From TrEMBL:
PROSITE patterns per the UniProt record, alphabetical: ALDEHYDE_DEHYDR_CYS, ALDEHYDE_DEHYDR_GLU
Active site positions, chain numbering: 255
Species of provenance: Pseudidiomarina taiwanensis
UniProt cross-references to Pfam families, sorted A to Z: Aldedh
Gene that produces this protein: gabD
Name of the protein: Succinate-semialdehyde dehydrogenase (NADP(+))
Amino acid sequence: MTDFSQSELLRAESYINGTWCSAANRFEVANPFNGEVLARVADAGATEAEQAITAAQQAFPDWANHSAAERSSILRRWYDLIMARQDELGELLTLEQGKSLTEAKGEIAYGASFIEWFAEEAKRVYGDTIPAPTADKRITVIKQPVGVVAAITPWNFPNAMIARKAAAALAAGCTFVVKPAAQTPLSALALAELAEQAGIPAGVFNVVVGTDSKAIGQVFTQHPQVAKFTFTGSTAVGKQLAEQCASTVKRVSLELGGNAPFIVFDDADLDAAVAGAVASKYRNTGQTCVCSNRILVQQNMAPAFIEKFSAAVQQLKVGNGLEPGVEIGPMITADALADVEQLVQRAVAAGAKVVTGGKAENSFYLPTVVADVTPTMALAQTEIFGPVAPVLTFNDEAEAIAMANDTDYGLAAYFYSRDIGRIWRVAEALQFGMVGINEGLISNAAAPFGGVKQSGYGREGSKYGLDDYLDIKYLCLGGI
Ligand code: ADP
């Protein structure tokens, strides 16, 4: 294990304009597994948020004027440095977030893959020529970076939620200011350290760390110099921040909550469906916005599915994320644990049945399967954000689709079937931004990540991801 007291990757100050900035107060960042304090971090607020935006504004013209090839090679260096330090970054992430070391290292590689991807895409910001309606004119379209981007990110992916946004923004020629979640600022600050080592110029990538998220959020969403605001987090907070952005007509991307259905039809490969459900439900201890939130199983398959699924869930190893073989880490906070506990208790009181798990142990909630869940229970309607799988049943395809779509959310959905006609029908009918078909893990840098309905708008990754950070400009050349 790394001795972080000797490592330049453990930083405890905001990174603004290429400088590590102290503050009057400090707050503790603790390991969710045992509460051990990892760092006392300078608590930045509205003033530092403004300084960061000013720095980003001043750095913008020069960064935008770098050639695409120059930006690309700097981003590529950042990617290389991150991957060279993957093990340490993974450990740091497990320490502050709790997820297993395997998943943490996986997140570092996943986050870095967006930097690699957009280093390549930076070179492909093509414009367009359009036939003009009259002979004396020419129409050209160019794409230009929107300007300063402000971002707010959550604690469940402390590295990747930042990398995914910053990579696209910087590739497009924008400058970037991010406020990570106060529970997990260390991975963000380590990214800043490596950004500096990679040669990203001062002011281009800034990290403002503080506990007063409201005050920082107000500056990010209302500052006239911020052109674009991007947020990943809860739907409630996202709605509020989008509203705040309206007064200065910022461009906004929102990646909000989900309530992912995982549908198992009676023609599915049962073992594949069980493996997919375990992977999709229990990764990151169930604390992701694309985790399966409702397992919908065709009635005649339900007994066999529940038996195999709960047997697989019982095998999951719970413990300190740093220990080899551990798959389920602690919940991020005691409050998060209590929320999950309560959701299960309410479902049981309403007639649901715990098949396995169903209780808390220290900072953990045991991997849980709950059967006999009905669509009206809070457990089926709420984003659970914990290692609990509610199982509901349906009779036919139409009912499955209606149940799956019966939510305000529209982020990810999954289904298992071997019937090609059904696969097309269901894939098209699901009102979700991403659909896994016979697949429980779907996210990668080449694919567009994002939702519909109240799960937000905008796409991250893929060939579409740069569009969120580019303005289209139409040039009309006359007098020819
Ligand atoms: P989560 O359930 O993931 O904690 P939140 O939406 O509460 O979801 O948090 C996501 C991010 O939004 C975090 O960085 C958090 O600090 C920030 N945040 C929470 N409330 C506000 C707010 N009122 N204004 C600005 N940022 C906020």
